[in-house]
Structure formats: C-alpha cells, structure tokens
C-alpha cells in the first residue's frame, strides 16, 4: 500500500522554539483523506541531514510532504537540497519572481536580492502557488515511485496551499480513493483498563477499527471506518457505536465535540432547570468550565467561591459547629455548601466541591486528593467521597474534582428514578 | 559529536489526534542542556515500523529518547519492541507490580491483568521510575554506543521523570558538558511590537542572546547564555536582565515560573492584605487562576460568580436601577461588584470583571470583547475599560480579562502613591 511521510524542516523545531502544529494539521488531513501515513520526520536546516532523511523516506513512502525551509534566508535550503538529492539543477522561474515583486509592492515593501532565491526550483518541478506569502512550494515527481510536495513553514500559508492546490492534485493522481470517517466516544467514571477489558472484542475489528485513548481522567474510544463515501463509512460506524454505547452505559457521556459541561448544559436546558455552584478547592474552576459554553447563562446562574471557611459560613450558611467538628473537607460541609448555594441563588440544583488539592494540607485521615462533592436538588441533598491521590499534583486534583462534580450532576439528571 | 534523537511512538500522533508537545518539551530541554539533537521521528504503534525507526536512529544518534507506548493496552508496544530489536527477553519486575498495585489502591481502583504488562521490561534495562502514573520508563544501554530512555506519552509524567531521573543520569554519564542557561522575562500590558522596538539593540547581542516571544496576550523576552557553568552563564545574563527590566519598567511583571497570579499573591502576602473576587463573564476563571498557587488560601478568601444579574443584586448588593440604566457591562456595575465583594467577604481588596465574552451578546455600543474591571481598596474604588475584540474568540476574551484584572491589582499594589 502506498503511503505518505511528513518531513518538517527547521532548526527552530529542533530547538523547541515552536510547536509542530504543521505535522498535526497534515496528519489530520491525511487521515481524513484516507492516505496511509506511517512516519513523520523532523530535521534541521542542514543539507546533508535533509538528504539523509529524504533517502530514508524514499525507502518507506511514496509521497513525501515537506514543510519549512522555503524562505529567503541563507538557512532555507529545502528546494536546493532536493535538487541535489535527485541530481538536477535549480531553474529560475521568472513568473515566480514577478509574483514575489508584485506581492512586495502590494504590501509597500521592497524586494531584497535574497527573495530571488525563492524563484529557484528543481528542474522538472511544478510550482505549487502560494496565495498568501512569497514562498511557493513544488509538486514534483523526480522518480516514478516518488512524489514530492513542499510547503512553507508558516501554518496559514501551508493550510491554504494544501486546500487549494495539494488536495485537488492528490485526488487527480488517485491518492484519495476512500474516505476515513471517525467518531470519538467519551467516557467518565471508568478507567482506561477497565473499559478496555469490557470492550476487548471490539479491538479486533478491522473496519471500523476501535482504539482507546485516555487523558486527564477521561477515556475515549475512537471508531474509524474506511469506505468509498461518508455515508458508507457512517453505516459501518453506527452499529458499532450503538453496541459500544450499550456496553459503556452511563459511563459514556457523549461523542466528538461534547464535553461534560456541554452535556450537562443540554440536560439542564431540556429540563428547564438551573444550576449554582459552591467551590472550595477548585476556586472557580467548575464555574469556568460551565461558562466555557456559549449560552450557559440560560441555565447557569453563578455561585460562591468559598475558599476561606468564613465565606462558607457567611455566604453559604454552613454551620460553624459542623465546620469545627467535621472539618471543611467532609460530607456534611459539602452538603451544606450545595444546599446553601441552591437556596441563596434560587436555582433547581446546587453543586459543591470541597477537598484537599495539595501539595500541602493533607493528613493521615484526610490525605491530599480527598474531595467531597455535594449535590442538592429539589427534594434532597447527596454527597460523594473521592480520593484522587496526591501523586499527580494540585491541578490534576482540581481538574478531576470539577469534571467529577459535573459527572454526578449528569448522572442525576439522566436518572429518572433519582431521589432529586 | 554524540547526539540525541527524539522518537515519539503513537498512532494518535499519526492521526493528528494530539499535538506533539512532548517533542517540543524534549527539544527545549536538550537545547538547554547543550545536547546535540538533529532528528525527531514519529511512528505508530506498530512493532515492525518501530524497529525500522530504531535501526535508522542507531545509525545517526547515540541517545534515543522515546515517548509513548508504555500504557497497559495491547497497542502499547514500545518496551516489547525494543527488547526484540536488541534480541533480549522481557523480564517481569515485581517491584513495579507492587508500585502499580499501591497506586491503584491509593485511588480506590482495582488493578487489571492488563496492568501486569507494564512491569515487563527488556532484560538489562533499569527502571526509570514514574512518580505520577502507573507506567515506568527505562534507562538502558543495549549496546556500548546506544543509550535508550523511555517515557510515557502523558506530558505531566514525562516532565517529572525527565527532571527527577533523566537529567541527573545524563549529567552523570557526561552528556551535559556546557550549560545553556536562560531567563524568561515576562511582560503584561505591552504589545510584542512595541516592546521589540524598545529593546531592539539587545537583539544583536551574541552571548547572551535576547529573543522575543508572544502568546495569549503575554510578551516574553528570553535571555540565553552559553557557558561552562551555571554561575558563568548567570554572570552573562544578570547585567542584560537588569537593563531589560529597566527598559520594561512596570510592564515587566516577573521571570521564569512567575505568573501574574503568583506575583499578585506574593505582593498581597508581603502587605498582609487579602483579596476577594466578583466574576461575571469569566465565570470563576479569575478565582481558578488565583487558586492555582498552592498557599493562596493565606490571602485569597473567595468570591462570587455573579453570572446572572440576580446574583449581582442578591449576593453583591449591585443596585438594580444602575443595572437597568447602565447595563451589567459598565463602569458602575464593575465598581459595585468590586466594592460589594470586598465588603461582604471583609477583605482588603475586591476585584471584579464584567464583560461580553461572545460570540453572541454584543451590540454596536457594547461589542463582544468589551470588559470592565473593578478594583476596590481600603480607600476607594476604581474601574477600567478594555476592548479585547471579537476576532480571537470567547476563551481569549475570558483569559485576557482575568489576566488584565490581576495586572491592575499588581500595579496598584506596586504603586505606593496609589489612592487605595
């Protein structure tokens, strides 16, 4: 099977000065177009090493996609090195020179002698026009089994050139024969390994394939189908998605662009319910998560950041005696915070978080990572204890606390038999 | 000259599902430590292709740094493939199994058979302990001219393991000979181009070098020196840093690990002052930023998320008539929010934010991106109008609002002649 390799040229990548967003963009595009892609390489602005990478890539891929090294400065060497690699001279393209000169006039700038270099392309290469900047790329078949595309390193220029010139070319050359379509199912409240065991048989599927991912406490399953059309791909995905959702049950909270906050928001809106939050260790992070969703003002009314105990008493009505007896990190206080904020803001739901984010403040009885989440509904108050551990740091505990709070509310909103 | 190669393993990278921040982190670290690094490779979770990448890398580098493929699922193959590459068996490490089991208990979860796999390492490899997660890495010299380090793909785990284990090992093995030391000066309230013009002559320096960066509204200047020792590098940096700080004035808020929240926290602590916040469009983001700092409970008491106008009135005492006349996004309401939260929480300072984050809700008179920040001190209340624009989206407006609010408080805390 023919495949592509992405080759990013630039010493700034080796120094870590920039993040390689071009590789991600091209990878997504290749995946979307169904073009196989098994390797990516990064190399500095050094002719010998670029040649070495080209030789390696020619042994394992048929489509070489370059970014970077097309600029006017002396360290921009991609085209000159490619010409050397395949033993052809550089040829000056007068139409490129004219185009560059025109663009400079348009921006009120003067063309420098350096820019002449950008008009030199390997003999036999076609110009891959750059509508945004001065550096054109090339489309070149130096050998029958090698196709080369080059793009500037500037992401905005790469994207336009990819969309407008490269995709039509690849389609015309038969590189795009089938469509890859994928669905990302998202889970909360289940570990990657437990979910992996539950859905183990699905990992053997060939089309669609199912693969697990995990990050920041969230587990995902990607279902990917290869087909002649998007409809056909969707037909392959739908039954597998339904089965996975059944196996996942309530742990599966959504798909693709869904977040816990967006799913909770939709449920609240559907039910005409409203929400207020009371946050201690998250310090506002739960509210910030909820208000990331544009339109959240229709169901999220606000809340209280009760970081200091005095605020828990003064603004939420937490009982000072209970605070003294049970401590701020307790079922009792979590429940009083949730009920307090629900009552004071006059919302359907009150959701609270109190815990020890660390790294200091833990004890044997109440270790770092211990978090209580309180949930007050129309007919009652509930609380939940979680132990997120100290090993992954303060922000991890805070992030998990906010997500888990949203997840408790989500499950209560979905559970028709709930006491709330 | 001996050099390193970064090899990132993971089909998710080839699909473009994640951005390769690990490669950037490692590249920065290698640059900082003065370890030469000429190539990066990305390959999927495929044993044959991983082997191919290892063979290529062994021909051109002596230190191979792997990320990814250490997890518990069947597609995590890095260690098994490396063992195959160098013809050694995998050996189970009981101490790793115990460590994994302990971590599972600590989080109240059950270890699965899948996790046993993570205790299998190539024979002869040392364990590179993972204090954050279940997957350990390895330090291994399978041949005299090849050193292998492996890390999980989870960035937080990689970073801790790199700092705590890999750097000391590389120093002990003589990989770190000259020191690159750098200082990052951070600015708020000045644009990159204005700052660049002010400090233009510094960009011509050779050692240390000075280079500008900008992201998320923050401008930075990196001063980088190359020397035989950290002290010698520091001697090169210090005078340049002093000059840059003078040119920057109050716009320079800190360096390196400082954040606006940490700098404000230190100033509050020094003055024995306390802070409360009232947030509308940021929805808790300002509080979340302040409480990222461990120990912030000594000066940050909490606040009110007054997303709905009823909360502004009920919990902050904003005048309903002013709300109706001037609108929630106004100088008047920002000032009443700041004073209200200061009075109700009994703190030295009250800081408020009310604005239009977008993408909807703007008008000709009050466009998306219009934000008012209120600041109430012991002797008065002030407010500030900002227009952050609509073009960069909701999260941009919210982030800039929170940072700018902190910056106003910082300048007031630094200004001895302030009215507050």
Question: What does this 3D model show about the protein?
Answer:
The structure is a homodimer of 420-residue chains. The longest helix of chain A has 21 residues, at 394-414. The first copy, chain A, has helices spanning 11-14, 21-33, 47-60, 78-85, 94-106, 113-116, 155-172, 192-198, 230-248, 260-271, 285-290, 309-316, 320-326, 331-345, 394-414; strands at residues 4-9, 37-43, 63-67, 90-92, 120-122, 126-128, 137-143, 146-151, 179-187, 209-215, 218-227, 252-255, 275-279, 300-305, 349-355, 370-376, 381-387. Chain A folds into three domains: 4-172, Molybdenum Cofactor Biosythetic Enzyme, Chain A (3-Layer(aba) Sandwich), CATH 3.40.980.10; 179-255, Alpha-Beta Plaits (2-Layer Sandwich), CATH 3.30.70; 260-414, CinA-like (Maf protein), CATH 3.90.950. With 420 residues, chain A is an alpha/beta fold. Chain A starts with a strand and ends in a 6-residue tail after the last helix. At the A-B interface, helix 2, strand 2, helix 3, helix 8 and strand 10 of A face helix 1, helix 2, strand 2, helix 3 and helix 6 of B.
**What's the number of extended β-strand segments of chain A?**
17
- Name of the CATH homologous superfamily of the largest domain in chain A: MoaB/Mog-like domain
CATH class of the largest domain in chain A: Alpha Beta
**Share in helix of chain A:** 40-55%
Strand count, sense and barrel status of the largest sheet of chain A are:
6 strands, mixed
Lateral arrangement of strands in the main beta sheet of chain A: 2-1-3-8-7-6
Which chains have the largest interface? A-B, 94 and 96 residues
Q: What Rg of chain A is obtained from the alpha carbons, in whole angstroms?
A: 28 Å
Structural class, from secondary structure content of chain A? alpha/beta
Question: What is the CATH third-level topology name of the largest domain in chain A?
Answer: Molybdenum Cofactor Biosythetic Enzyme, Chain A
DSSP strand content of chain A: 15-25%
Shape-level CATH architecture of the largest domain in chain A: 3-Layer(aba) Sandwich
Shape of chain A: elongated
What is the overall number of helices of chain A? 15
Poorly predicted residue ranges of chain A: none
Whole-number mean pLDDT of chain A: 93
Question: How far apart are the termini of chain A?
Answer: 57 Å
Task: Give the tally of structural domains of chain A.
Answer: 3
């Amino acid at each position: 099977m023919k495949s592509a390799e992405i080759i990013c040229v630039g010493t700034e990548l080796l120094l870590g000065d920039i993040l390689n967003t071009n590789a991600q963009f091209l990878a997504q595009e290749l995946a979307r177009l169904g073009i196989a892609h098994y390797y990516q390489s990064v190399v500095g602005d050094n002719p010998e090493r670029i040649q070495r990478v080209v030789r390696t890539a020619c042994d394992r891929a048929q489509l070489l996609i370059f970014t970077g090294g097309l600029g006017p400065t002396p360290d921009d060497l991609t085209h000159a090195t490619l010409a050397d690699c395949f033993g052809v001279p550089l040829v000056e393209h007068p139409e490129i020179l004219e185009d560059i000169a025109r663009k400079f006039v348009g921006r009120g700038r003067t063309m420098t002698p350096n820019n002449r270099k950008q008009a030199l392309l390997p003999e036999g290469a076609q110009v891959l026009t750059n509508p945004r900047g001065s550096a054109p790329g090339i489309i070149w078949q130096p050998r029958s089994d090698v196709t080369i595309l080059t793009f500037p390193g500037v992401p905005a220029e790469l994207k336009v050139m990819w969309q407008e010139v490269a995709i039509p070319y690849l389609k015309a050359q038969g590189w795009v024969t089938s469509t890859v379509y994928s669905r990302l199912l998202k889970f909360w409240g289940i570990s990657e390994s437990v979910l992996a065991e539950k859905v183990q048989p699905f990992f053997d599927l060939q089309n669609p394939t199912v693969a697990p991912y995990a990050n920041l406490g969230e587990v995902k399953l990607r279902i990917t189908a290869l087909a002649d059309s998007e409809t056909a791909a969707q037909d392959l995905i739908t039954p597998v998605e339904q089965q996975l959702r059944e196996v996942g049950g309530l742990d599966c909270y959504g798909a693709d662009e869904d977040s816990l906050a967006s799913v909770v928001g939709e449920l609240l809106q559907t039910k005409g319910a409203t929400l207020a939050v009371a946050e201690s260790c998250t310090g506002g992070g739960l509210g910030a998560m909820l208000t990331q969703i544009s339109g959240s003002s229709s169901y999220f009314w606000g809340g209280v950041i009760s970081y200091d105990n005095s605020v828990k008493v003064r603004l939420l009505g937490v009982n000072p005696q209970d605070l003294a007896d049970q401590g701020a990190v307790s079922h009792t206080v979590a429940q009083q915070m949730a009920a307090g904020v629900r009552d004071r803001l006059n919302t359907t739901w009150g959701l609270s978080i109190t815990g020890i984010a660390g790294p200091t403040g833990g004890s044997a009885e109440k270790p770092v990572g211990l978090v209580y989440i309180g949930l007050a509904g129309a007919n009652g108050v509930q609380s939940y204890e979680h132990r997120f551990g100290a090993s992954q740091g303060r922000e991890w505990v805070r992030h998990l606390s906010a997500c888990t709070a949203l997840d408790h509310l989500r499950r209560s909103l979905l559970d028709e038999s709930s006491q709330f």
